Amino acid sequence: MNFIWIKKYRKQLLLCATIVLFILYTSLLLFKIASVPTLFVDEANYINEVISQAHFGTDIHGLHDPVYFSSVWGQGQSILYSLIVRPVIRIWGFSFFAFRFPMAFLSLLLIILVCFYILRISKNVVAAFFMMVAFTTAPGWFAVSRWVLDANIAPIILGFALLALLCFFEMKKNSTKFFWLLVSALLMGLSAYGYIVTWLYLPIFLIFLSIYLFKKRLLTGKPIKLYFFLVLFLVIPLIYFAYCIFIRHISQPTKFFWLDISPLPMSRTSSLINFSGNIFSKMFINF
Q1: pTM recorded for the entire structure
Q2: Per-residue pLDDT at 189 exceeds 60
Q3: Distances in Å between the alpha carbon of 85 and those of 53, 106, 111, 216, 258?
């Protein structure tokens, strides 16, 4: 009798289980978020940058609109999360909870949207439930979501960009489709401001994605070209920054229009891009 009842209400039970799992995960994610894990040196450096921007309108080196933080020793840190958390600190003042909460909130929002999208498209509660399980049982995702290292924001924003692209495919009106294409390109470009490794990852990812979409006839050439152009336009300041750091090896701040280009005297650029000596040998070592 119980088995028949469970089979009859299986969808409702799985939906409830998905919601309960998300609530439990949210509770764990926010539990002692201000104190656990303890402060790490990179996070402390980033806190200094955010407080300086929130209170004085500049980074700790006095630059108003840096494309990339030089940080304490000139090792470099990305700016994207600072743009997100800065208004929070201005309104509520600095606390470890206020500093870490936006990262956790965006992570939770992404989980909700991904699971909702899967449920909406597939009409399959089982699929949505197991996607929730995949997110909530991943220790790496849990750590990324509550510990503010500047690079942690990049995969979250990249996830929102892909969701916006999926919404583009779902829409029927051209005006609405164009809106979601713009949103996706904007978020895709912004993700490059969240982690230096995305500078190498994004071009490769977008090329393979474009080939797949074109071959499957999901996108024609014009939208693909527009998407590439918008992403490229957004990352031009980073391209110029990379040129100044990797090629010119600047030792003093410079300008790109109104944006500030910071020097990185303690950067680890040689482990990413190195044009000295045998280029192919260095590429192999770095790979």
Answers
A1: 0.89
A2: yes
A3: 10, 11, 20, 39, 22
